[in-house]
């Protein structure tokens, strides 16, 4: 409370005037936790958010998402999903951020998530998290490197070439299966892999 009183040169004194003042100069505290312990995920990415401000309370919690490879902003200043029972003005607020797997815009080896916690006095705290999301299936091609005769038959070893592509997380493995009648006992295959 700010109080003021005036006195003139003759010694007359005014009544005391007071104005209530709310002061909060400290930034709020917060924490953002990844609910998954995987380096890469193919499912919804979920973060839990907790925020505390013992003086003025939490006004809002927003988040932004951008790709680090081209700096394109995918989410800009959206509010988190608040847990039931918490609201703006509370001293303790919890909620979550969900990045949906079905939205392939989020497929990125280094996705940057910035959470901004703002208290009722407009003090802010930013928390940055990085994650890797890949929900897009890889592509694979197969071809023979050995030419068949003019009737479309082979009479010797056949070499197959497999090529796999994945632009985000990369190729971990390539597997193949060869099915043929039992009489073709000399059939062999060679595997090559390439990641672009």
Structural features, described:
The chain contains no helices and twelve strands. It is mostly beta strands and 196 residues long. The strands form four sheets. It has a four-stranded antiparallel beta sheet with strand order 3-4-8-7, with no helix packed on it. Strand 5 and strand 6 form a beta hairpin. It is rod-shaped, with a radius of gyration of 31 Å. The relative contact order is 0.16.
Structure characteristics:
single chain, 196 residues, mainly beta, four-stranded antiparallel beta sheet
Tell the overall outline.
rod-shaped
- Name the poorly predicted regions: 184-196
Number of helices: 0
Q: Which class of secondary structure composition applies to the elements?
A: mainly beta
Assembly context of the chains: single chain
Care to count the β-strands? 12
Query: Strand order of the main beta sheet, please?
Result: 3-4-8-7
Task: Name the beta content range.
Answer: 35-45%
- What is the H/E order? EEEEEEEEEEEE
Calculate the terminal CA-CA distance, rounded to whole Å: 66 Å
Mean pLDDT: 84
Instruction: Please give the radius of gyration in angstroms.
Output: 31 Å
Report the helical percentage: under 10%
Major sheet characteristics = 4 strands, antiparallel
